[in-house]
Amino acid sequence: MKTLSSLEHQLIATAAIPPAFRWSKALCGLVLTVLWLLPFSFVLLAMFKSTEEYAASAPLSLPSGLSPLLDNVRMAWEQGDMAQSMLNSTLYASIGASLSVLLAAMAAYPLARLRFPRRNVWFLLLFAGTVFPFQMYLIPLFFGFQWADLLDTHLGMCLLYTALCIPFPVLVLRNYMQNLSLEIDQAARLDGASELTVFRRIILPNLRGPMSAVFLLQFTWIWNDMLFSSVLGNRPGTRSIMNALLVFQGSYAQSGPNIMLTAAVLASLPTLLLFVLLRRHFMQGLRV
Amino acid sequence: MDPLMHNNQQLLNRIGLQHIQAAEQARQRQQFLLALPFMAPALLLVGGLLLLPVLYNIWLSVTHWQLFAGKDDFAGWQNYIQLWSNPYFDDALANTAIWVAASVVFPLLLGLALAMLFRQMPGQEWFKSLIFLPRILAPTALGVMWYYVYAPEGMLNQLLGMLSGTAVQIAWLFEDSLITPAIILAFVWQSCGLVMVLLLLGLAALPRDPLEAARLDGAHPWQVFYHITLPLLSPTILMVVILSVLAGFTVFDLLWVMGSSYPQQRTLSLAVFMYFEAFQKNSWSFAAATAMVIGGVVFAVSCLQTMLQARVDRMVR
């Protein structure tokens, strides 16, 4: 039987749906999307209002001028102590995500490409990290960090985030490596290449796609995390950005909603930019 | 014994099965020694910072423990019994049940509707990304935003006022009957995007033939959806349901940011209860027992998923 070409497929698909129906569907989607983004709109407006103006005007009214923006940003930045926490989160997210993805790729290599007894047990041991809810780690980690003098240190937070972000990439990268052909590394081994060379020269270059996808997911997760920072790094010097935002909101008595909302936008800006620029990679990460 | 097997055995003996087996074992041992350095750093980190704490948490939940006295006597089930008779724990349990139900039903229905709407639509990439956007942002930052949406002078009241023609001044987050639905709405708004994207991926992977055959035979779109699309999509739906159950069961950030003082009956989930008991009241063993309850349910749900997934996969294929 002759298979249908993609054009014929399209013809069948479009013939079944009348154009009026398609347009109403598109309109419906547009309305829904606008409704979905409505909460953001008042935040954008609030960023351009001074505290008095915000209190006096309705949330969805246009601001009288654009000038309060700079003041809001400066006040949020200073009162929210955002410079230090921004730096902390950048450190945690970049070190945690890149180290965890690298270590996960290393661990996934023998799990996918070498044969040794009880391979699945070793895999499950690493993968078990995704089975438990975060609540089970909190108290023991708090005591453990206290005992090891890691509480409220950058080192402790980096180690923790790296460990938390290893299990999921191990799963993804192992699955991906299993689908690469075994012949290339066998050929390389016959030529006398060591396992490290095989991994570095042959496997890693093939993993660029999935590795960048999981890197993005882990980076945003660490950036957005508030829970672990509020338990294990709750000092001004080690606070993550989201924890700093929470602390700032707890003391919002002195600063108005316009400043709080500006602070929330500033804190979300990095992940927002990553998403806008690398949308395709994010979606790739969900495919796995 | 199978005669063929017997012959094989003899043949293998003649060529030296023992040698081959020994060589294979040595080879595997050598491969393991090669593998170990690759896995060691990941194993150390995961073992030391995730698995060891879980074991310690189990031990902690069956002891009496005071931070400064440093006592750790074995207490058996006492923490769990105490948990059961704690009125706040009952509230937390009831609220968590509501959260699980809401976080399964609403995102699934809405996500499915959105997925069906955006499928085969011109410009769907844009719509998809915009609906997905809240998922990328931190619950903490979104909680701050929704806090002001729900304020008495906030955006929601302004919109309601515009629609009804009279001024509306409801303090959404300070009314006992409104706070849970209000926070659930924010949660659904944030989680719908992921559900929709996962369902769209599932829809894109469906075989085209049954759908087209039904359409050419003149089936009504609803019939196609109900009798063909939905059953074929069931593996994806199962995955989404399990993910939503786990997300609803461990919800913390939004409640912590938008809820006010604790312990407050309305916004107490199991995760919030555990955090409060541990880090504000310092009743560590008690909180460890709560964490065990959360962990037990999450573990059970994960096991259930593995079982169901195998069954559903078999059903579809």
Features:
heterodimer, A: 288 residues, mainly alpha, MetI-like fold, 16 helices, 0% strand, globular, B: MetI-like fold, two-stranded antiparallel ribbon, 13 helices, 77% helix, 2% strand, flat
What does this structure look like?
The complex is a heterodimer of chains A (288) and B (317). Chain A has 288 residues and is mainly alpha-helical. Chain A is 75% helix and 0% strand. Chain A contains 16 helices and no strands. Chain B has one domain: MetI-like (MetI-like fold, Orthogonal Bundle), CATH 1.10.3720. Helices cover 77% and strands 2% of the residues of chain B. Chain B is built from 13 helices and 2 strands; from the N terminus they run ααββααααααααααα. In chain B, strands 1-2 form a two-stranded antiparallel ribbon. In chain B, β1 (63-65) and β2 (72-74) form a beta hairpin. The radius of gyration of chain B is 27 Å and the shape is flat. Chains A and B meet through α1, α2, α5, α6 and α7 of A and α2, α4, α5, α6 and α7 of B.
